[in-house]
Design a protein that fits this description.
Blueprint lengths: L2 H7 L5 H11 L15 H9 L8 H13 L23 H4 L2 H7 L3 E2 L9 H11 L8 H12 L6 E2 H18 L6 E3 L2 E3 L9 H12 L2
Antiparallel strand pairs: 1-2, 3-4
Helix pairs in contact: 2-4, 7-9
Length: about 210
């Protein structure tokens, strides 16, 4: 476990979330890709419960995963939904594969975001590649929106690594939110549905009912 992971684990987190990362996700992570092993909720619950049964529902596991997402310890792949079951799915541990030299340098100091903040170019490229951000180009407006949001939250103190990581996650969410309404998203691909008028059985029966009364 590297210094970036330890730093992230020292942020406000519940102890069960720390146990989930350190004893379940981290030992089985692929050090080349950052991919975790398959999440098996049954095994995770057994690990977390120990001698007392506190975790019995999948949504409790998802709540812990959300904690880990918030501090940058894991990323949810674009074809998964954190609000649905991730049983038998995999998540990404970005801090596992980023080069340690970059990690240590960018984790040295924490501060609130500032007006002319920019992401670290090299780290941005590495993280964007890791989380599957296809469109890596960003505009001054996107950076400005990100900075403006966090300027209003001066109590949030993060390292430059963590700010860059948050910016990558922000861009990924923005890209997904801009899926055109006339297109359907399947995984990370977009398809244009064929134009058609579909009438379900209830609607058809209603039409036939009123037609017979005429």
């Amino acid at each position: 476990m590297n210094s970036a992971e330890l730093d992230a684990l020292s942020q406000p987190l519940s102890n069960p979330a720390r146990v989930l990362y350190m004893l379940s996700l981290r030992p089985n992570a692929n050090v080349q890709t950052g991919a975790s092993g398959e999440l098996v909720y049954k095994h995770i619950m057994q690990l977390l419960n120990g001698t007392e049964q506190h975790f019995t529902l999948g949504r409790q596991i998802n709540a812990l995963l959300k904690e880990l997402v918030n501090v940058g310890l894991i990323e949810i792949p674009s074809d998964c939904d954190i609000n649905r079951s991730l049983n038998n799915k995999r998540v990404i541990l970005p801090l596992v594969v980023v080069k340690q030299a970059s990690v240590e340098r960018l984790h040295q100091n924490k501060s609130a975001i500032y007006i002319d903040w920019q992401p670290d170019d090299k780290l941005f490229a590495e993280l964007a590649q890791l989380v599957g951000l296809i469109d890596k180009a960003f505009t001054p407006e996107e950076t400005g929106d990100f900075v403006a949001y966090w300027l209003g939250r001066p109590d949030t103190q993060l390292s430059h690594f963590q700010w860059t990581q948050k910016f990558v996650s922000y861009l990924k969410q923005q890209r997904l939110a801009k899926v055109p309404r006339h297109k359907t998203q399947i995984g990370s691909q977009l398809t244009t549905p064929q134009s058609a008028v579909e009438i379900d059985d209830n609607a058809r029966k209603l039409v036939e009912k009123y037609r017979s009364k005429q």
